[in-house]
Amino acid sequence: MLKEGAEFRELQLQIFRTRMAFRRCIQRTLKEHHAGITFEMLQILSYLWREQGITQQVLAERTAKDKACLTNLMNNLEKKGYVCRREDPADRRNKLVFLTPEGDKFREQIRPILDEVYKEGERTIGLERVQILLSGLKEMHDVLENI
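Given the sequence above, the corresponding structure tokens read:
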């Protein structure tokens, strides 16, 4: 007989494994298409594609990166010309991060490639199953936020 909570523990482990498999899949795709960025850089860019002018602190929280790691990623993205940092007029201690025109151009190049990965996953697993899994994960998120 399994210990109480063992199934939930196994679920957490499987979510972690799935995240790592997803990371490897995206990293392979980026490499195959000579994107010149890492999965971690893509995470930063994807947040900026949705919301401009957010602080490095917000990016660090959303991507679960520490300050040193995020600074390194930001430096690399700046060298590539994809992002720029500006002083926050409301708080000079903070830097706001923005996409550059080059960052927008990169999005237009990489988005169709990433969309194909997502479409293939949806075709393989099936839309109905994806919706069920998504619903379950959202429910699990809400439970964990309230424990």
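Residues 86 and 92 are 9 Å apart (CA to CA). Try to locate this feature in the token string yourself.
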